[in-house]
């Protein structure tokens, strides 16, 4: 251990308390956005576009969910993501223009409250998307590279006449 070295002061420490509060609030807003909007964004990106699916998969999705339901749910999910992201960034820009430490803290609290309201208002949309994902996960997986054939009718058709 070298005792003659003085501890190095952090160079990234912000001395001005107002700038420090603004920075802290911006990081708080970004953390909340990271939790909320990234989840909705990733969920909306995990659903492939219907036109990019194989014809068989497309028909299974349409027959399972109904015509237009799949696209409608994905659009709603993307709108929720956009609302969360735009609200967070708007409050972050607003926070950078404030002049006092208390205003910066209040701005961060207002942002978190607004994000919570958006999630509460759109909770139905998020539940519908989760239910849609659950239904689609329950469908059987078919390897589309292998040929598909199926028996039509029950396997025991005509067995009574055969044995009598």
UniProtKB/TrEMBL annotation:
InterPro entries linked: NOG1_N (IPR041623)
Pfam families, per the entry: NOG1_N
What sequence ranges are listed for the domain NOG1 N-terminal helical?
16-143
**Record's superkingdom?**
Eukaryota
PANTHER family in the cross-refs: NUCLEOLAR GTP-BINDING PROTEIN 1
The protein here is known as NOG1 N-terminal helical domain-containing protein
Tell me the organism. Answer: Phytophthora nicotianae
